[in-house]
Structures are given as C-alpha cells and as structure tokens.
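User: Second chain of the day. Same drill as before.
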Amino acid sequence: MSSLQGELPASAVGMFHHAPEQDGVVVGRQVAVDGFIEGLLRHGRRHRIALFHPERQRPQGDGLLQDGAGRASLHDRRELAKIDDFRFAAWHDAQFDTFTPFALRARARAPYPVTLVHHTLSYRELLHDVLRLLLAKPHRYDALVCTSRAAQRALEQLIAHVAGRFNEEHGTQLGYRGRYELIPLAVDVDRYRPADDRAEARARFDLEEDAFVLLWVGRLSLIDKADLLPLVQAFAALRAGNPGRALRLVCAGTERPGERFGAAVADYASHLGVGDDVRVITDGARFMPWKEQLYRAADVFVSPVDNIQETFGLTPIEAMACGVPQVVSDWDGYRDTVVHGETGFLVPTVWAGCQGEISAGALLSESPYDHLALAQSVAVDMRALVAHVQRLIDEPALREEMARRSRRRAEELYAWPAVIARYEALWSELADEARRAPEPQRRGTSYATPDYGGCFGHYASRALDEGALLALSPLGRELVRGAASLPGHYAAAWQHLELGLLKRVLQGLARADATGAPLSLGRILSVLTKGATEPGARDVVTRHVLFLMKYGFVEERTG
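Assistant: Same format as last time:
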C-alpha cells in the first residue's frame, strides 16, 4: 500500500479529499469541509486519517500532513481496490455522499461504521441522495451527523417522505436503521478572536473609530441565501432614529457570476438616502484573507436569513468567537447557536402553509428559484431587529457582556477541539458496536456497479479472445529498438497505463518475434498475471495489449 506516511493502524478513519470549487464564490459548505479536515488533523487524538484524492486532483499534501502531526496520509483513490489493507475503524463523508462509502464498505471483509454529515438539505436533487441512502441499507452502527436540531428534524422528515412515497409506489419496505447524531460545525477560535486593537481592524476597512458598525458576512445572493433589502430598510430606520450617531452597515460576501445582488443592495441604500452609510464588498480578495478583522471592526453582527437552504450558519459563530453580539433570524440552526438575551438576539420570523403549489411544480423548475419563491414568503420582523440593535446602541455595558458570553460560548461549544472530540468519541463508539454486531454486512449498492462489457461489448465488430495470435508490427519493432516512442499523453493525464507493464508485453513479443512465432493473448495473460492476487489482473493486461494494438505497435496474425 503506497502512501506518504506509510501503514495506518486499525484506528484509521477514511475520508475523500475533494478539490475546492473554482468559480470564485465562497460557500459555507466548502468552508465547513475544509475547516473540518484542518480541525481533525490538528486536534484529533484517537485516530489517524487517510485522505483519498482523485487521480488528477492530488491536493498539496505537505501542508495537510504537517497539520496532521504524523497522523495523516494521502492516497490515490484507486488504492481502495485493496480496502482491507486499511483496516478502517470508520469512514466519514463530509460531503453527504450517500452511496460511495457504502459501496466501498461492501467490498471489505470486516464491518466498520460510516458517518455522513449534511450541509444544505433543501435542494430537490437531494431526494435522490436520500433514496440512495435507503437502498444502501445502513446498519444501526452507521450515523447521520446533523449540525442543528432543526436540520435533524428536516432530515428525519425528508427520509420519512422518500421512504413512504417509494414504499407505497413500489411495494418495498425501505427504511433508515442507522443513528442520528447532533454535532455542530465549528470555527478556529485562535483565528476568530476578539480584537486587541479594534482601531487597526477599522483602519483596514476605512471605518471611523467612533462609528457604530453593523456587519453582514455571507454569500450575497437573493436567490438562495438572504434578502438583504429589508435589512437596508431597517438600517435606514436606525439611521433616522439616531441622528447624532455615525452608523454604518457593511455587507461583505462573494457573488455568483451575473447575479449582482451586491449592486442591488447598494442601489437600494442610495434610493433610501443611506447610500453613503452602506458599504457593499463583493471582491473576496478584499476581505476574505482578513475576515476576522472585518468581524473585529463590527459592533453588531446581523443576519436576517430567510432561506431554507441554510441549516446551521457559520458566520454567526465566527462573529461569536470574535466577541461580536449577534442579531439574527429565529430560523433553523441559528436558534441553536445564538442564545437570545445572552450572546445576542433572535428576531422572530413568520411563515404559513403556502408551499404546496411550489412543491407540486418543483419537477419543472430549478431548485434555487423555488428557494427564492419560498423565501419571499418568509417575513423577518424588522421592527424587532431595529429594537434589538437600538438596545445595543444604547447599552454599551450589555454589548460588552454579550461579547464576553459570546466568546465563552464559542470556546466551549464551537471550537474545533471540542467538536473533533465529539466526532472521535462517536467513531470509537460506533466501531465498537460494529465489531460486536452479529448481523452480516448488507449489500444494497451492487445495482449501481456498471457492467461495461456486458452492456456495451457488442459495440465492437468482434471480441478478441485468448486464442488470438499477436505479434509486433514493423512500428512495434522500431519502438523496441528505440526508433519510435509511445504517446505519453495518457500516462501523464490519466495515469491508467502502467509503463512497466507495457514494456513487459513488448519484451515478450520481441522474444517471440526473434523466433518467428506469434504469442497467443492467453499465453501473454498467463505469464504476466502469474502469482497475481488482484481479481482484475487479466483485464488490466488485456487493456494494455489492446492499447498497443490501438497505436499500431502490435498486430493480430491469422492462421
């Protein structure tokens, strides 16, 4: 087993390492996943971590391994063909892949738990993920990790919805037998911490030292994040109610190409006469490297989220860790993290049972625009938001007490050491249960293993059988003599060819060529797979022979 750190002990936890998204939009899911891996490598104590990357997306391993303090290793995903070599204590999927982890485990001799953590739950496409989860037949020692109580309730209802409808329509008895676990997301409390000197933070973002600053941080999207125009209305009311105070509203976040919601926020502020007091920052390069300083420059963090795509919310706990009181919607995961009257205030929201028509038409629409239609029927009580912010303006002592309580809560509940300890305790508990489990592994994923030969083999004019006689072509003889070369693109780009194996095929054919006798494919396979234990060894050799035929180095002889 090749790796950067050698063999892993039985306490290893496997994970996929996904390449970051490259569209320039910062989304909470990727921030959470990257933070989890970093937190696990820095603060984990019980387990070693095996990170598996796609062939062409190898991450920069040195930094990851350094964070892992000798407990991490990087692997090509193809190494999972020998899954038993890793002796996993658990497999964790941070991207809510409801199929691959179970399909991998079905190949292993010894059972081990699979844990999945969700992010957003509201996109229609997720219903197929739920169905795949049910078809994979999780065990009672598997777990779905939910980041908030609201998210857990939503996930339970999603699973019940899919299972109920599918069982009714297909006469099956699918159900989820695994566990639900409540573990929040976390932040780096060493990075996100109260300011030693707020003046420095304010100077970076050109904010006056005596101004009272309200801050929103998050993706700037009306479609599937939050409508900030009512917040601008609320800010205008605060501005009018405090004529002697310098109030500022800063909205910082990246945008999807073409959406331009940041410009809409700025235009609306100008329309309401507060354009000079509202600053919109959409260039991530201007604030992302110094995001903690942006929080430290603020007096209050505000987030009137109204969209069902939000399930937890990282930015309120980033603000919490920086000692900034939070005034946020009483909505989904926010009500778990923000303690009303202690770390900030929860602003009431109101909705009604008016979603049936959107649900019925979801098949013909796009999920983000369903989200927009739904969000536009969620009312956040902006009068309450104004009252809460006004209280924080008027009561500096309350603001300072909330800042202290916020920092303490972040350190106790939302720091990576505390959260990683909960994950490791869960993995150990589930691994013990898996070892004691009397039931054999259930395999519910074989339907999704493709049979390329059985389904598409008839595309070719004929199949090359093991009796086929093969010999070097004139070009193949030049290749053996060094007068020609192999095309190198495939090996470099896809890594599916083993140059050493190609060389062995050519050497065998060259020896046969010297005697004037061709070799049968069967003979080549017998020689080159002798002693091999991998189940697909003969297939691998055959594909290399066909590759040499494809480029004219080897030809078939008749008679």
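The first strand starts at residue 12 and ends at 16.

User: Great, on to the next one.
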